[in-house]
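STRUCTURE:
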């Protein structure tokens, strides 16, 4: 999982979003070995992000990301 978080995010129409978080979940294991994900995320076109949410996703994608690992037991 990769997470992007912004405490305060101002959009172009003046809307201020607080605590904006985007989490991208994708598998990282392929053929039994770890695969390093490319820093450019998948193509977001066609995912239905419209209006303020689409702009927020676009802004968060350009922010620093944090890698979160989950281990099943």
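SEQUENCE:
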């Amino acid at each position: 999982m990769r997470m992007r978080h912004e405490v305060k995010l101002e959009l172009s129409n003046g809307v201020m979003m607080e605590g904006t978080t985007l989490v991208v979940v994708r598998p990282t294991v392929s053929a039994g070995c770890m695969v390093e994900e490319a820093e450019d995320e998948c193509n977001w076109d066609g995912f239905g992000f419209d209006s303020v949410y689409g702009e927020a996703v676009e802004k968060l994608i350009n922010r620093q990301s944090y890698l979160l690992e989950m281990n099943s037991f």
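REMARK: Residues 2-30+48-67 form one domain.
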